[in-house]
Amino acid sequence: MDTLLNNSDLFISGFRNTLILFFFSAIFALVIGIVVGAMRVSPVPIMRGVGTVYVNFIRNTPLTLLMFFFAFGYPKLDLPNPGYTVLAIIALSVYTATYVAEVLRSGFNTVPVGQAEAARAIGLPFGPTMSLVIMPQAFRAVIPPMMSVFIALLKNTTVAAGFSVAEAGTIRANLSERGEPAIVVLLWVAFFFVILVGFLAWLQRSLERRWKVLR
Amino acid sequence: MSSVLYDVPGPRAIRRNRILGVVTILVIAALLTFVVYQFAQTGQFSAAKWRIFSFPLVQQKVLEATIATLTAFGMAAVLSLVLGFVLAIGRLSQHAWIRLPVTWFIELFRAIPVLILMMIMYYGLPPLGVTFVTPLVAVVTGLTLYNGSVLAEVFRAGVESLPSGQKEAGYALGLRKSGVMSLILFPQAIRAMMPVIISQLVVVLKDTALGFIVTFQELLYLAKFYGAQVTYGSPIIPATIVFGTIYIVLCLILAGIAKWVEVRTRRSPKIAKPGKGDADTLEAAKAPFIGQQMGGTAGPIQ
After folding, report:
1. Which chain A residue shows the shortest CA-CA distance from B118?
2. For residues A154 and B116, what is the distance between their CA atoms, to the nearest angstrom?
3. Nearest neighbour of B111 by CB, restricted to A68, A158, A193
4. N or C terminus: fewer CB in 10 A for chain A?
5. Would the CB atoms of A193 and B39 count as touching at under 8 Å?
6. Chain A, 93-152: which have a CB under 8 Å from a chain B CB?
7. Opening angle at CA B124, ends B123 and B129, nearest 5
8. Which cellular compartments is it found in (chain B) (predicted)?
9. Tell me: the pLDDT tens digits for A3-46?
10. Chain B residue numbers touching A205 (CB-CB < 8 A)
11. Cβ-nearest to A186 among B119, B227, B299
12. How do residues B284-293 score in pLDDT, each as one tens digit?
């Protein structure tokens, strides 16, 4: 307990940075993921191809490798360098976006084709078909796996610790310099992660229960 | 073919789709050109930066690092499958005093980031007098605890997706619980969840890269080492390209096996053609694991 109380400054700043990484990566991953997901279900074969290549390529790349490229390789390219935190956010977003896209695509696949055909048969144009019939059903199927993706994103932010971003994963290295036992510090970090993940899992369950409909 | 999102395209839609296709090609081509131009501009393609990879000694080191990565992957994969089995059996137990601790164990290790687990092993234990922790041990233990817990849930979901008639028929034949589990439920569950299991093994392979952060001497470690050689012009980008390609190819091979198994099991005559309802349960059983494959989640506790 002393380890935690005496060094609360480092714990607070570490987890604040973790949450910053999580929050911005989640937003950018959603934006990129929606674009890629839309490409993967679009009627244009070339767009589908590009989406598929992106998803398969990035999904089979370790996140550590992406971070590695952005942290060590990118600064050598003579492009404007926004700093390690922003680069980590880019790497996390690019990686997570593929999973967001997959969740969206499988969400659309859960809606039976008959629903869309019925909507078109009664004369609804594209917009209302989407907003009144398809989206409400797909949305419900998307929420639980999407929350899983965000939980995984929260845990993946620790990878940034290896690349000069001062977040929860680096608390140990900093506290070792202050002479604190590493195991106690790490167990506290793990404990806070369990709490954060537990909160997101609780949110996931309550959203799922709220929007569950019988089909 | 009509789909949920769009109808069969008419003449106007076909024209619009063609235009969109051309625009996509242009945008992608522009992006790639920019990246390649920027690489070329900063001399990433110059022979000097690639020379280091032409030395036999370096190539041998690369091979050794690949073997180190594969060793960690192999050990972690086998151990997590074993742990997954044990935990799944405990999780499905009828005795609350077995089921509840196992459930907590699974939920706990799914919630802690793998990297933190590795750090606990590598930095946390040695000061307590534990001496056997090498980076390899830390990486394998971290991966095993996490992926074993995830695989336990996969096995359980597979068992629970089976129609209850399977279990009842087993009991009706006079099989004991162990017989029902090992002869009837698990073989079917494993077959049904095979694609998910192999995708989880891809996660194991990908996550061995985390070993880089706890100084395990695998591919990325070597990439950073060679990338920092000033004599050869700090070829960090060529190193990333070389070592990244090895990683991606390894993962793609494994993912390709997963795809192949999925196609094969779908055609296999050994699996009774499930009715519509059964197929839905199976899809529902697989669905929660989409998120896991990016490195984990704590899904709802059922």
Report:
1. A186
2. 13
3. A193
4. N
5. no
6. 95-96, 98-99, 102-103, 106, 108-109, 111-113, 115-117, 120, 126, 130, 134, 144-145, 147-149, 151-152
7. 105
8. Cell membrane
9. 777 778 788 888 888 899 999 999 999 999 999 988 888 888 88
10. 300
11. B119
12. 566 556 555 5
Cβ–Cβ < 8 Å for B294, B286:
no
**Per-residue pLDDT in tens (0 to 9) along chain B, 302 residues:** 467 777 788 888 889 889 999 999 999 999 999 988 888 888 778 877 788 788 888 888 889 889 999 999 999 999 999 999 999 999 988 899 999 999 999 999 988 999 999 988 888 887 777 777 888 999 999 999 999 999 999 999 999 888 989 999 999 999 998 899 989 999 899 888 888 898 899 889 999 998 888 888 888 888 888 888 777 777 888 888 888 899 889 988 988 888 888 888 777 655 544 444 455 555 556 655 655 555 444 333 32
For chain A, list the domains and their CATH numbers: 17-168 (1.10.3720.10)
What residues 63-102 of chain A have any CB closer than 8 A to a CB of chain B?
63-65, 68-69, 72-73, 76-79, 95-96, 98-99, 102
Residue type, B50: W
Query: What ipTM describes this predicted complex?
Result: 0.85
Contact B138/A at CB under 8 A? no
**Is the torsion defined by CA of B12, B14, B15, B16 positive or negative?**
positive
By the 8 A CB rule, do A29 and A97 touch?
Answer: yes
CA distance B270 to chain A (A): 26
- Is A158 in Cβ contact with B296 (below 8 Å)? no
Cβ distance B114 to A155 less than 8 Å, yes or no, reads yes
> CATH classification of B55-294 is 1.10.3720.10, yes or no?
yes
Q: Is A60 on the interface with B (CB under 8 A)?
A: yes
Residues 6+ apart with CB under 8 A from B271: B188, B191, B192, B265
Who among A50, A79, A205 is closest to B300 (CB)? A205
